[in-house]
Amino acid sequence: MSAEGKTTSEYIQHHLQNLTCSLQDGHFHCAHTAEEAKAMGFWAINVDTLLVSLVLGLVFLFLFGRVAKTISTDTPSGMQNFVEWVVEFIDGSVRGSFTGRNAMVAPLALSIFAWIFMMNLMDLVPIDYIALITEPMGIGHFKLVPTTDPNATIGMAVGVFLLVLYYSIKVKGLGGFVGELTLQPFGKFGLPVNIFLEGVNLIAKPVSLALRLFGNMYAGEMIFILIALMGASWAGASFGSTLLFGSQVMLSLGWAIFHILIVTLQAFIFMTLTIVYLDMAHQEHH
Amino acid sequence: MNINATLIGQTIMFALFVWFCMKFVWPPIMAALDARNKRIADGLAAAERGKNDLALAAKRSAELLREAKEKVAEIIALGDKRASNIVEEAKAQARAEGERIVVAAKAEIEQEVFRAREQLRTQVSVVALAGASKILGREIDAKTHSDLLDKLVAEI
Asked: How many residue pairs from chains A and B have C-beta atoms closer than 8 A?
C-alpha cells in the first residue's frame, strides 16, 4: 500500500491531488504539493484530468466510429449490437424530452452520456493501483477519475451553457432572449427583480450540472479512499487488523457495486438535464 | 482542486468530441437503424400479404375443387343418360330388325305357300286328268281337252 509512511490525512490529500503542471521559466513543471499547485494560479493544467478524459473520449469515438463505418442493416452482432442498443436508448431519451428539431441534440447527448459514463467508470479502478504505474514513472499524483476534478465538470457544463445561450439567441432572437431575461415574470415594471430571478435561473443551469456531477463523484471517491484506509492500518496478523482488512474487502465490494448505479445515473442525469435545458432554449414561450 | 486552464481544455475537448460524434458517428448509425426498421416493416408487410395471398389461394382452390366435382357429376349424369339412350336405341333397333325378319319370313312363307299351291295346282290337274281319263277311258284326248284343263287349273 502506498499509504505506508504517510499519515491518514496525508494519504487522503495525496489521493485528492491532481497532477497540476504549468509552464514555468520556459519549461514544463509539475506541482508536488497542493500548495505548489495552488500557487500556479489559473494558467496551469491538470494533466491527469485532460489525459484520461482525452483517452476515454477517443476510446468512445473509436469504438462507435468503427461501428458507424462498418454498420450494416443485416442482423447485427457483437459490438454493433451494443452500439445500436446505446444509440437507440439515447435516441429514445432525446425523443422523450426534446420537442424541437435539432440534429445536434441527439449526438450531443450520446457524447455526453458515453464520455461521462466512462470517466465515472474509472472510479471502479482500485485507487492505489494507478500509483503502481505512475510512481515508478516519477509521477507523484495521478487522479484517474476526471469527473472528481471540478475543472472537468465545469468545463463540460460551460460547453452546454454556451450551447444553451447560442440556441436561445438563435431561436428567439437577441431581443427575445433579452426580453425573456428582463420582462418576466413580473412585467417591465419589475425589471430588476426579473433580471435577478431569471439571471439566477440561467446561471443555475451550468452550476447545477457541474456541481452535481462533481459532488457525487468526489464523494464517491472520498468514500473509496476512506475504505482503502481500513486495510492500510494493517499491523500484523492481529484480530483487529484482520477484521479491518476483511471489512475493507466487503465494503469496497459493496460500495463498488453501488457505484455502478451512481456512475450510470450521474451520466444519465447530466445528459437528461442537457437535453431539457436545450429544449427550454428552443421553446418560444415558457 | 484548483480551478485552472484545465477547464478550457475540457470545454474544447468536449466541443470536438461532440462535433466528431455529430459528423461521423451518429448519422451512419441512425441511417442504418432507420433502414433496418424500414426493412423489418416491409418484411412484416410482405409476410402479411403472403398470408392473405395464401388464404385467397386456398379459397380459390377449394372453389375450383368444388367446380370440378360439380362438372364431374354432370359428366357422369350425362354419360348415364347417354348410355341409357344407347340401350334404348339398340332395343328399338333390335325390335325393328326382329319385325323386319318376321315380315321377311312371313313373305317367304307366303311365297313358299304360293309356290306349293302352284305346284299342287299343276299336280291336281294332272291327277284330275288321270282320274278323268281313267273314268272315261281313252275317250278324252289330252290334246283336245287341254284348253278345258287349263281353265280348270286356273280355277283352283
From this structure: 130
